Amino acid sequence: MNATKARVDAWLGRMTMYRLILWILAILAAYSLLLDVLGWLTFGLADMLVHLVLCLGLTYGSNRLVALLFRVKPHSESSLITGLLLYFLFWPSALAPSVQVPDLAGVALACVLASASKYVLAYRGRHIFNPAAAGAFIVSLTGLNIATWWAATPAMLWLVVPGVAVVLYRTKKLPMAGVFLLVTVAIVASGLLRTGADAGSAIWQPLAQQPLLFFVGFMLTEPLTLPPRRWQQLAIAVVVGVLFAVPYNLGVVANSPELALLVGNILAFLAGQRRGVMLTFKGSRPLTPSTTEFRFEPKRPVRFLPGQFMELDLPHSRSDGKGWRRVFSITNAADSPEVTFGVGTSEPVSAAKRALLALTPGEHVRGTAVGGDFVLPPDAGAPVLLIAAGIGITPFLSQLASLSSVRRDIVVLYLARSAAELAGSDVLEASGARVIARLADGSAPPEFMHDAGQARIDAHSLLGFVPDVAQRIVYVSGSPAHVDSLRAAARRAGARRIHVDSFAGY
User: What is 408-459 written as a DSSP string?
Assistant: First the structure.
């Protein structure tokens, strides 16, 4: 089971979540055309093709035009995702016996407004609203067209369900999706039960005939419009779920999926880092033969908790298929005037990492999001065990560098290939934590570290190194394969509270 999970994680890690969502939506679009040919959908193939070309062409073209007006580099993948979402939100307009001009105009306007919203409805470089939802909602106010969310057609579920499952697994948003679905299904089902429906139908109907799954997989969990912490995301899921499921009509507006999402976007914006972060590159230095530290000066102070990540926008002309945006753990102390990232730079180096390595002092990079829940417990008296495998040490460096004068009871177990690959030894030593090094080549670690030799880290050896592991809150960071095995070892050793942070490749 663990081997299969590791292979799945490695395969999914080859693509950024933007590229993955783009591919899944493209497959769903192709599947919808096939369904129409087979007679499961009845729009008409010509109408669907024109609708698809219109949505993709207008969102892509208008995105590049508006980006040019605002003098920023456009994100083509994001525009194509928006176009595909609008393809599934609006009913394909009929071309015969006569062209439905108002319907086509409404879709076209939604595409342009969706692109413009990324730049106009934005705050210091970060868009506030889900672009597709913003475009659809504004168009509904004009009366030209209204979103029907036809992706909820039952025949589409055969691929929507696995597609959504893959996206939620890759983005680690299954808990948020579960909360949203629980709230919405409970509300809708209770209403159906009051009208005499049986329990099975009451639960199945909202899942099969309302766009809950498509909405939660491709809209609600859109990364740039989420708050940074998991508890905040779960709270947003509850609010959006209620607004989605409870019918209301305020005269000018009535309940709709897009309006529910826009309200959630506003709440998320108020809860998070409410701006893009402009970073000026200051320089880099090798941390180990395979790891490099990149230093940046933010234009404004960055608000983050030690252990969190920042997403960077790294445009590069020759993409390797993983997109422009990458997530990196912040390694500096919370009160540092600079922002630093520790990045694995051993061959093969991805296109985004080559863009990082090619930076010269004074160049600018934009941070598009700050978030994550891999943070130490607020109770400074709670003992913790930090287990790092290779590059997994990076979030711990920020946590250890940010320790106040009140020392925590911290044990660090650091797995690396050799003594030369121990990154951040100065931070580890200054922290006062007890550090245990397990080096694969048998080399000797620095004197302040306890040498664990080449022992395989399992439940037995872990108890030998950390006898009170059951009383500690455990944090595990590294590659998905390392995280899975080390988490299992900690659990078998008696640990009850385990938090993980994996690096699937970038």
Answer: --EEEEEEESSGGG-TTHHHHHHHT-EEEEEETT-----TTSEE-TT---SH
